[in-house]
Specification:
Elements (H helix, E strand, L loop, with lengths): L4 E3 L1 H9 L1 H9 L2 E3 L7 H18 L5 H22 L5 H28 L5 E15 L5 E14 L4 E10 L3 H6 L4 H13 L4 E10 L12 E7 L2 H26 L4 H4 L8 H4 L16 H8 E3 L14
Parallel strand pairs: 1-4, 5-6
Antiparallel strand pairs: 2-8, 3-4, 4-5, 6-7
Helix pairs in contact: 1-2, 3-4, 3-5, 4-5, 7-8
Length: 318
């Protein structure tokens, strides 16, 4: 029996966005030798990990102490980045410090907002970093173990409804809210919830935190929650779409396993976003210049690693 390939929304979206990025990250499993310590992703990760510590702490201590736990976790993450940075790289050290100040201000503001508005009142947390998964066999016979990790699962005690809540650090609220009803990440989460957890999950609560220090010049609001309900019809349609996407990924994997040229079946889709959201930006063009030693460059800057280590253990991804 063929072992299932692990798959997540992140891998699916990467494949759809750029097959070459997917080839680097999920097929070849390439990770940078030195993790980038600055940038939007780093800010988001610090905020996310700190909020995880906050909601976990709330189970055993009062709110004020939970806030202290979260801020201590944040400061520790910044300190680790500073201690492991190249001492001679003054620019990076300044950026780590500056962005650390930003992410701490975001968290402090968030906790103040919770206290002032009571945004969490009436919600009972029933799951933190909860993993949901299921096995899928596609129409073409490909087998996948589909998995997601939910930031929070909450019950609205007044309405008697269950939701999952996802933390997002954003530059503004207008851009993301326009597309939230189409967000495949949340559709995937809700679809998995509907299969694996008894009872109905209504949909997603987007817990958005603006990347702002809330200075006098900054314009509020800085925090917003936005609910999106998913009907059963939407979830059923998502499943049909998912089967097609997984068959495409399985087919490309098969072609690569058979020795097909990745330039033909795992081609790039360059866009302006590549300049800031792709860690393979500088090695990507080397694949198309056969006179260059792309593999040598890759060996100097990347290593093989598990793209699914986020779930806490080694997972098969290809």
């Amino acid at each position: 029996m063929t072992e299932s390939l692990h798959i997540s929304n992140s891998e699916i979206q990467t494949f759809k966005r750029c097959r070459r990025k997917w080839w680097f990250g999920y097929y070849r499993r390439l990770k940078p030798l030195h993790e980038r310590k600055v940038g939007p992703l780093r800010i988001g990760n610090r905020v996310h990990e700190s909020l995880e510590s906050y909601y976990l702490a709330l189970a055993g201590v009062d709110t004020a102490d939970a806030v202290k736990v979260a801020l201590a976790k944040h400061d520790m993450l910044v300190m680790v980045d500073l201690e492991t940075a190249d001492e001679s790289d003054e620019k990076t050290i300044k950026e780590i410090t500056s962005q650390g100040d930003l992410s701490r201000a975001m968290l402090e503001g968030y906790f103040e907002w919770l206290a002032e508005t009571g945004a969490d009142q009436g919600y009972r947390v029933v799951g933190i970093e909860q993993t949901v998964s299921t096995e899928i066999t596609t129409p073409l016979g490909a087998q996948f173990h589909t998995k997601a990790k939910l930031d929070l699962v909450v019950e609205d005690e007044d309405a008697g409804e269950r939701w999952f809540l996802d933390h997002k650090t954003v530059g503004d609220f207008t851009t993301p809210t326009r597309m939230l009803h189409l967000d495949e990440q949340m559709l995937m989460y809700n679809w998995l919830q509907s299969l694996t957890v008894p009872g109905k999950t209504e949909g997603a609560i987007y817990n958005m935190i603006k990347k702002s220090k809330r200075t006098q010049r900054a314009k509020p609001p800085f925090f917003m929650r936005f609910k999106v309900r998913h009907s059963q019809q939407e979830l059923d349609s998502f499943y049909v779409r998912l089967l097609g996407e997984l068959d495409q990924i399985a087919r490309v994997r098969q072609l690569l396993d058979e020795g097909q040229d990745p330039r033909r079946v795992a081609y790039p889709s360059p866009k302006s976003e590549c300049s800031w959201d792709c860690q393979y930006l500088y090695i990507c063009p080397l694949i198309d210049r056969t006179q260059d030693d792309a593999e040598h460059a890759i060996s100097l800057t990347f290593r093989e690693g598990d793209p699914y280590e986020y779930y806490g253990e080694e997972k098969k991804s290809g």
